[in-house]
Amino acid sequence: MNSLQKFLPKYSLALALIFIATVYFLMTKANTVNIEVAEVTTAELVQAVYATGFVEADAVAALNAESSGRVTTVGALEGQPVTAGQQIIQFDSPQTQLALREAKSALAEQQALVRDSKLRTERKRNLFKEGAISRQELEDAEKSALQADELLRQRQFQLKIREEDLKKLTVTAPFSGILTFQGVKKGDYVTLNTLVARVVDPSRFMISVEVDELDIPKMREGQKATVAFDAYPQQRLSAVVTRLVPQTDRITKTSKIYLTIDRLPGNIQAGMTATANIIYNVRSNALLVRKSSLLEENHQSYVWKIDHGRLKKQLIRQGDSDLTFVEVLQGLQKGEKIALSPDKSWHEGVEVKILQSKIR
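Request: output the structure for the sequence above.
Response:
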């Protein structure tokens, strides 16, 4: 019994020491959080609308056969450059050639008749002056001359039509560019209105993007944009909004906007997929924090500020934002430090151990 009484005080003392150590741990180590922090800074805030689309040719010509005939000459192949007026395809049509010869023959015949009619009219005038013929005979001769002149004009017009028909047997490039489609080969018989070739001017490529209808009020001609292509993800090209199409698709709820690239590289092709960030607002010297730093409570935004090594909840008033940053209009000052990845379970007064931030 005496031994037990001697042992109990020692045991109680040990428990007391453990209790004190536990309380000390909870008040110190257990009340410390490891966090990454960021400094509130000022920078340029760029707001942009993200859109996707494709490369389109602003100058593209779909060339159809304007006459039926058999292909006799192919002047250019797909992928080859062509110049304005260059022959791409030549047809042969015996009917057109025959109609042209007939029109020329009819014109020559009528020209001869007009000359004869003029000579007869002149003789009739002389005879009328001499009193050898009546006025009616003179008027009949003059009338015949007028009819011959009118018929001559008709023959000239018919010849012009036949010559135009002959030109239609040759398909030429309307402007300089690249032949992106050539659908016939020598010996093929082509009917009227068949698509035979397509010419694209690569120097006039544009980017056609679809913008959500909610973002359309932010869009203006002349706005700057940054464009990237899926085929060349490392390249970033400067562009400008040049056209806004005033039509919203009822299904996709988007509108089309055209962008012109300032300096078009030679390796871009029509149909390539492109993405664009169209800048609609730039705020210089804005006080910024990362979106990941913000928490919401009772419809109010707040951050965890580091105040003398401890956490302090700080309410803020937000301004504009981009994909990464939010402008702070009230509640923070430049140079203050805040937690990058806050936790709603934190409470004020907790001591912090600052870790090196992995965000750059």
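Helices lie at 2-27, 94-130, 135-167.
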